[in-house]
């Protein structure tokens, strides 16, 4: 019996061991079998193994991990963690891990002290693929790297080989690297397009914020490929160490050595202010040796350092934030490299650039708009970027103080102000400016403000205090000159004192043309209960459509009931001035001033010059000595005339300019007069025997009495320039010679030619 019992016990144990081995083999084969996992269907924590593909959007609060040594693909996956006591990162690597990016992916940490993606100390996370990744935290964790909780404070190594990656910290952290007061080992970027932004004193790539009692550290940072944009914050470097709040103490934000090799495409490093370096140390912090290959080009734009290869295009654009002003707004792209020859295309979707100019937005409802751009140039690698346009509601100015247009014993009507709303002291705002159901003989305060709308906040209000009437007047009116007298016929017993009232028409302030003053008449008081004062303006017997503004004498009248009062007033013309006196052409004894042509004069406004005594006949003694009055008459009747004095030459009879038949000079024959060039008339005529020269006269008047000008030449052709388009001119020519005294003696005028300026 004893021997048989022993045999049975051994056999039982062997069978049990075989069953366990079989079960372990089954579990192992299940884990090793690669699968596509839809995150939306997970109801419990999940660990991804080598070859797994994660896709879909996480719904349940499940912890997602990657097993040690596994390569996992994120394919349009979204792990959007929420800070709800789930003590883990968005993705937790349990050891060395590789993430392949496919499509567009988003990973955000759960608890506020955890990062978006965590890799443990002494292990390495490798990111590759052609897709995109947005990684961030809900608080004090990095986008990719470490966090602030004890189990994620120390992060391992991070290597980025490819992909379009955006990593943003939240509070006191880096975008890629250490969390708040935490650590990270080495960071290597070999390719792809990487955007990393720190927050609250964290570097874009490297350390988080440091403190005198709690530091933040990062190992070596190596960038040897790709396009890298790093944004530091609050006195932190863009790449390197963050800021340290206190200079004393042994704990700081400390970064290892930083190396940027010549194989990078470009690096944009925006520091967190002047107290930090672009690449290296933050404020009160430390960093190892910074080595940037000498073959790389460098330039700065404010707090941004740009490092790039010669054959790489470079550009940047700043976010635009404006208060609503009714104008369209877009982004401005600053092309740094090349200096010329670059082409910029825009779009509202990343990767789609079809527009030649930045898209524009005008209203708050269209905001914010992220504008994407791509810069290309022959011989340069293209660069892409984006900036956001934000339009905020504006604070409008307050409206004018409201006025009372009607007051009764139980109502008040305020003046209507466009886009305004109204309220009493209870601040119950209403669209209508009419307030009814008020108490008799009671003081109220009313308010008006511009209404809130899509683009504006409600404005500050303006107020007016009004007392309602004791009763409503029943007026009858009589008039006396500019005065109207009203007598109240209401005998309800609520009269206060005299039941009579008087108003006078007050002439407009507008007393001179263009003085900018009020052109409307007013009354010096008002009758209670009367809401309109219908003024009528007349110029003589002509009724005008409204208050006049031109110079003249007018009458304004007011009719209330059967009574009409009126007052006459004048708007004076503005005195014109003569800026250049005209010159007068010579005449002969016996000729009148009207035979002398006035030319060349100018006034402060358009107008013409005329002799005041046109029939006067000067003598030889008056020649070049006696001054004769010339009046300048403005074309616009809103300007009054001006006077000046002019002298002229008076020649003996038969020898002067006025005697056109006395000289033995023939009248020239105009062979050509035409508008050949812009604003010009080209003239040609036959040579006159004995002539020393010629005088050309042109005018817009056929009789040459007004607007005439003269030119002289010794040639038989002349071009008159600086004429006015669409004007018709009359032109004539006469010959002259000089007598023994050196005076000009003129022959007869040619026949006048008419020329219209078309060119």
Helix tally equals 1
How many beta-strand runs?
A: 71
| Euclidean distance between termini CA atoms | 136 Å
- Helical percent range? under 10%
Helix/strand-derived category reads mainly beta
Strand content: 35-45%
Shape: flat
Biggest sheet character: 18 strands, mixed
Q: Could you tell me the mean pLDDT?
A: 89
Poorly predicted ranges: 1-8, 24-32, 655-663
Q: From the alpha-carbon coordinates, what is the Rg to the nearest angstrom?
A: 47 Å
Walk me through the structure.
The structure is a single chain. This protein has 759 residues and is mainly beta. Helix content is 4%, strand content 41%. It has 1 helix and 71 strands. The strands form 16 sheets. The chain has an 18-stranded mixed sheet that branches. It has a 9-stranded parallel sheet with strand order 2-4-6-9-12-16-20-24-28, with no helix packed on it. The longest helix has 31 residues. It is flat and about 125 Å long. The N terminus is likely disordered.
What are the SSEs and their pairings?
Blueprint: H1 2-32, E1 36-38, E2 46-48, E3 53-57, E4 64-66, E5 70-80, E6 91-93, E7 97-102, E8 104-108, E9 117-118, E10 124-129, E11 132-136, E12 144-145, E13 154-155, E14 157-160, E15 164-168, E16 176-177, E17 183-184, E18 187-189, E19 193-197, E20 205-206, E21 216-218, E22 221-223, E23 227-231, E24 239-240, E25 253-255, E26 258-260, E27 266-270, E28 279-280, E29 286-287, E30 290-292, E31 297-301, E32 304-308, E33 314-317, E34 320-323, E35 333-337, E36 343-347, E37 369-377, E38 380-392, E39 404-407, E40 411-414, E41 420-423, E42 434-436, E43 443-450, E44 462-467, E45 475-480, E46 483-488, E47 500-506, E48 522-523, E49 535-539, E50 542-543, E51 552-560, E52 563-571, E53 574-575, E54 578-580, E55 583-584, E56 587-588, E57 598-599, E58 602-603, E59 607-611, E60 628-634, E61 639-640, E62 642-646, E63 650-651, E64 670-674, E65 681-685, E66 693-699, E67 708-713, E68 717-720, E69 728-738, E70 744-746, E71 753-756
Parallel strand pairs: 1-3, 2-4, 3-5, 4-6, 5-7, 5-8, 6-9, 7-10, 8-11, 9-12, 10-14, 11-15, 12-16, 13-17, 14-18, 15-19, 16-20, 17-21, 18-22, 19-23, 20-24, 21-25, 22-26, 23-27, 24-28, 25-29, 26-30, 34-38, 53-61, 56-63
Antiparallel strand pairs: 27-32, 31-32, 33-35, 36-37, 37-38, 39-40, 40-42, 41-43, 43-44, 45-46, 46-47, 47-48, 49-50, 49-51, 51-52, 54-58, 55-57, 59-60, 60-62, 64-65, 65-68, 66-67, 66-69, 69-70, 69-71
